[in-house]
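Try it yourself: sequence plus flavin mononucleotide, in.
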Amino acid sequence: MNDPLFLLAPMDGMTRASFRSICFDYGADGATTEMIQSLALGRAKKRMSPTFMEVLVRFENEKNLAAQLIGSVPEMMAESARRLTAMGRFDAIDINMGCPARKVVGSGNGSALLLDPDRAVRVMAAVKAATSLPVRLKLRLGWDGEHITAPGLVREAENLGFESVTLHGRTREQRYGGRVDAEAIRAIVRSVKLPVYANGGVTCAGDALTFLRETGAAGVAIGRAALKQPWIFDDIARLRGGEAVKPRLAQERISLLIRLAALACRHRPERVAVCEMRKFCGWLLPGLTGAEGVVKRLNGIDALSAYTALLEDYLNELVRSNDVGVHPELTPDCTLDTV
Ligand SMILES: Cc1cc2nc3c(=O)[nH]c(=O)nc-3n(C[C@H](O)[C@H](O)[C@H](O)COP(=O)(O)O)c2cc1C
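Structure, out:
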């Protein structure tokens, strides 16, 4: 049996090349770009818009990176797959059949395809025929408890020669909350030969290993937990190697945030990239003494130099007062649903 893979799950607006790159440094085994609208990409003129260019950036340390398409018109999905293939920068094409957003399903895309398996299969076949790259599928168990269509769609993916499937163990009706059905994932894993990666509800490294055991999957894809603990991939490797997980002190958190901003400025305008760092600081700093005040002060900052100076000064202060640890009583209860 192959070693299990621990992947970064795609998250729209969050998992650009900069953030993925940090997760790869921590040992992620693969990742997927945010979803790319096939209608927009398929019809784009030769020169693509800056937003597309940004989502399509790949950094040097990224490996096993799939570009994800969302759409329900087979011809448009095929045209977009051809364009992504021609760029020569991705290792695979992934199809999104999981997005639950009302706007997305309202146009028949994302998890709406779970209600229309015939169309879903036509989309899958069109993409497969349009690219020489391996094709992957990301889906949920079904639309709701009455429409559990993943078992059939995963079999179709296997018949079409897909490389793998990532399966979120919830229905569209559950959105991002409620119980993840590890048993249902396990039944699907057992019914096919292609690798199935289990997804949904992992909150820490220990959880990921339990989920792997419960589902018998080929690996686990981690979404929201990685935003708050990008080191989760390293924690998993440590646990698998029989070590304890490592406390992530102020030095590591703050240098990560400085590096993330510098990387983000490589693919986004500086002002936008720095403003976006506020949410990552809001996830990674709490627990450190004085974090709240620093996060507040970031609100007035949109230059990389000022952002970096503020964090460096903060770190120096913590080191000077010998207070670099994380205090559980200062850490707000970060459930996954708060992302
Ligand atoms: C903010 C956000 C954006 C997401 N964007 C995408 C996306 O673009 N494509 C996709 O396939 N899934 C997307 N997802 C779903 C995640 O990949 C994942 O399936 C889901 O969050 C469950 O995993 P988790 O419990 O580990 O977060 C998104 C999830 C969140 C929270």
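One thing you can check immediately is this: The chain has 15 helices and eight strands.
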